[in-house]
Amino acid sequence: MNKFHGTGVAVVTPFNADGTVDYDGLKNLINYLVEGKVEYLVSLGTTGEASTLNKSEKKKIWEFTAEINNGRLPLVAGIGGNDTAEVAQSIKDFEANGYDAILSASPYYNKPTQEGIYQHYKAVTEATALPILLYNVPGRTASNVSPETTCRLANDFKNIIGTKEASGNFDQFNQIMRDKPADFMLISGDDPVALPMISLGAVGVISVIGNALPKQLSDMIRLALKGDFSAAAPLHLNLIEFTRQMFAEGNPAGVKAALKQLGVCDDHVRLPLVKVSDELRQAIIAETKRITA
């Protein structure tokens, strides 16, 4: 599964001022990311504001993304939720043309036990022949997928091929790396810690900031994956302030402000999200100019 080594981008969903999906902006963004030489795209993850899109919008976005991508990069579809039966049905109904895998976040809000999480993902694997990437993001789901559960799933289900880990817990990363099957992929789900995670054995990142800075980020990730940390570290440090700004007032409002500055797409978001404050916007503009000058 080397197609998922390197930089994946959790693609934002551009919107028009009236709240409708901006397909011209999405086309611009997909082409921008391909030209930025990232390794793969994730359509309708958390960063894509999937929770505010209805089923028909999601279907159209997935189809449009595959059409514009036209086989240039591997594609991953984000399909998750807190109702296991509904998630499994959504995956069964998913038209996989052009897609290589599914990224599915651990159930949010319900706060299931580890056995509940295991059984949830068991149902997910039984709903599709596509490879599955787990997604552990306790800051959003209010529950953690333990290293034991991650490795249990990895060993029990061959189509679970990796995990996007956004727990920020390096003890957890260490345990996964020690106990996982050899071919199971640990992928960073947090831009700020992608470099140190790669030093532990992670195979890359599924990124937010890569929407705006695909070349700068993917250059750094490639150097790290080659083991050239002395060259990768300065590139990582150069992105620290930009990365902090992207999450200062929530995701994806920050990165959409940067994309607007870059002329890729507008910065509209759907409620309950709102645009970044004027103060943060000016800081993002300045930092985007500095990095891309």
Strands of the largest sheet, in order across it? 7-6-5-4-3-2-1-8
Find the count of extended strands (DSSP E, 2+ residues).
8
Main sheet overview: 8 strands, parallel
**Which residues form runs of ≥5 with pLDDT under 50?**
none
Radius of gyration: 18 Å
The CATH superfamily is: Aldolase class I
**CATH fold name:** TIM Barrel
**Secondary structure category:** alpha/beta
Please give the CATH architecture. Alpha-Beta Barrel
Number of helices: 13
Please indicate the percent range of residues in DSSP E strands (runs of 2 or more).
Answer: 5-15%
> What is the succession of H and E elements?
EHEHEHEHEHHEHEHEHHHHH
State the name of the first-level CATH class: Alpha Beta
Whole-number mean pLDDT: 97
Roughly what percent helix?
40-55%
Distance between the termini: 35 Å
Count of discrete domains: 1
Helix/strand layout:
Elements (H helix, E strand, L loop, with lengths): L5 E6 L11 H13 L4 E4 L11 H15 L5 E4 L5 H10 L7 E5 L8 H12 L6 E5 L1 H4 L5 H10 L3 E6 L4 H10 L5 E4 L5 H7 L3 E4 L6 H12 L3 H10 L1 H8 L5 H10 L15 H15 L1
Parallel strand pairs: 1-2, 1-8, 2-3, 3-4, 4-5, 5-6, 6-7
Helix pairs in contact: 1-2, 3-4, 4-6, 6-7, 8-9, 9-10, 11-13, 12-13
Subcellular location: Cytoplasm
Subunit structure: Homotetramer; dimer of dimers.
Family: Belongs to the DapA family.
